[in-house]
Amino acid sequence: MTKHSIAVIPGDGIGHEVTPAALEVLDAVGAAHGIEFSRTPLDWSCETYLREGAMMPDDGLERLRGHDAVLLGAVGFPGVPDHVSLWGLLIPIRRAFRQYVNLRPVRVFDGIDSPLRDARGIDMVVVRENSEGEYSEIGGRMNRGFPDEMAVQQAVFTRTGVTRVVDYAFTLAGQRRGRVTSATKSNGIVHTLPFWDELVAERAASFPGVEWEQEHIDALAAKLVLRPGHFDVIVGSNLFGDILSDLAAAVGGSIGIAPSANLNPEREFPSMFEPVHGSAPDIVGRGIANPIGAIWSAAMMLDHLGHPEAGRQVVAAIADVLANSDVRTPDLGGTTSTGAFTEELIRRLKNAG
Ligand code: NAD
Ligand code: IPM
Ligand code: MN
Fold it and tell me: ipTM exceeding 0.90?
């Protein structure tokens, strides 16, 4: 029996609907593979903030640190400004634990309709820089309420920060179809992205087996729609990677299926696994949230924890339900509830094992 300690933060909104689904799947696959999860449930959320004035306790990061991984649902809800909830919980975890790679795979499963006419061959991974870039803490708001009111934020690109995420992307491409596309905007932004481009070119020289190209973010957004099958690994800054990952997820059929892994590749600290989507206040409480993003994120966690076969079986079970039944949530055109979808997936997972 292998044991792992997992911190579980359902967070806000549909985080409370999709995280239990992911946990049920983990228990089912764990039982078959001799993996036991000891879970620490943490109710850190916007509700906690409204009650106690903080998204997580002062020693929150310390309490997470001893775990093998963090499983998170979603953070943010109407009633608490996003900059308060996100800078109070999600972003500090990504940064304190040096989770500088945000890995966001996209596939079109058989049985899912992509909104695109030609969705053949979509199988890509967005490697998003997750600790600096446009999401910097340098800046501020000034002269509130006056005509010269303004807001300033400095984008921060460091040699260390760019190099490590670019190396990760090239290494990953070397294990996949061997192509890296770097998202840039060096034609319009004078300082930061030309530096990003230089560092990408410099690192590319160490990966002669990997083809690479750079695309301006605006043109890349268009190509993702027109020729999605072309892309293998896309590497981008924090903001570009954020936008591209929702776009790529939608191209794959629904933002509800997209998973993500916030990785500390050196494994000095726990990594965090969470769906790409947010708390979806518009559908909360109706039992119709698509749990695939959360379940696939849990599969990425299994892979990270050294159980790739268990992770592969979970993704295969997702593919099986979608390809061989009409069981799916309304975002994918079905009528199935979150719970019934999860039940069907677990039934197929057990049958396959
Ligand atoms: P969102 O992802 O919550 O929702 C966008 C749209 O997608 C909505 O129509 C929603 O119903 C739909 N959707 C999302 N997930 C779905 C699922 N699993 N199944 C079916 N439909 C789904 O994005 P938003 O509306 O921009 O943000 C809502 C809140 O979530 C905000 O507070 C935002 O800051 C936060 N947020 C958090 C994270 C995170 O925790 N990583 C990510 C994105 C947004
Ligand atoms: C995501 C989210 C977050 C981000 C927000 C909620 C801060 O959109 O995880 O993609 O931009 O990183
Ligand atoms: Mn996002």
Answer: yes
Give 10-residue mean pLDDT values along the chain (353 residues). Answer: 96 98 98 96 97 97 98 97 96 98 95 87 96 95 96 97 98 98 91 97 98 97 94 98 95 94 98 98 98 98 98 98 97 97 98 84
Q: Are 65 and 269 in contact (CB under 8 A)?
A: yes
Distance in Å, CA 267 to ligand 2 centroid: 22
Q: What token pair was written down for 242? A: 């954020």
Domains with residue ranges and CATH for the chain: 1-109+254-353 (3.40.718.10), 114-252 (3.40.718.10)
CB 317 within 8 A of CB 292: no
**Which of 242, 255, 263, 297 to mutate for ligand 2's pocket (most ligand atoms within 8 Å of CB)?**
242
15 lines ligand 1 (CB under 6 A): no
Catalytic-residue membership of 185 = yes
Q: What is the pTM of this model?
A: 0.97
Q: How far apart are CA 353 and CA 351, in angstroms?
A: 5
